[in-house]
Design brief:
4-stranded mixed sheet, 2,3-Dihydroxybiphenyl 1,2-Dioxygenase, domain 1, Glyoxalase_1, lactoylglutathione lyase, metal-binding, 37% strand
């Protein structure tokens, strides 16, 4: 097994998802999930736009990739979901639902681990987002 790299050398940077309506997706991640746009770049030669959002400096980002023109995407069977750590899954689910998120699975215990509370919502492109309750000592 390879040795663990120094923490200062590596960190998780971002996850990329393709979106069909960039403005709608930005609105969801900003207005529903409370993220901030960190940077945006248009690439006319490649006919696409990249928008990076996160919860703050040094946090992992989500990269929204919008290919210009009409594109239809299907989720592959290998992709599962994105996950956001929250202090209360129930409160976060209620907040995100009040902001327009579609709740796929309300807050409740995981069947396999009843002490773990989770919920699932989805973004405008039907990407599933898991809300994971983190213990106070882990924050």
């Amino acid at each position: 097994m390879p040795s663990k790299p120094e923490a200062s050398v590596f960190h998780f940077a971002h996850v990329m998802i393709r979106v069909s309506d960039l403005d709608r997706s930005i609105a969801f991640y900003q207005n529903v999930l409370g993220m901030t746009v960190r940077r945006r770049a248009d690439y006319p030669e490649g006919r696409y736009t990249l928008v990076f959002l996160s919860y703050g400096p040094g946090q992992a980002e989500i990269e929204l990739t919008h290919n210009w023109g009409n594109h239809t995407y299907t989720s592959g069977s290998a992709f599962g979901h994105l996950a956001i750590a929250v202090d209360s899954v129930e409160r976060a689910t209620q907040l995100f639902q009040s902001r327009g998120a579609n709740v796929l699975r309300p807050a409740g215990p995981r069947m396999e681990a009843p002490d773990e509370i989770i919920a699932f919502i989805e973004d405008p492109d039907q990407y599933r987002i898991e809300l994971v309750q983190i213990a106070a000592e882990a924050r």
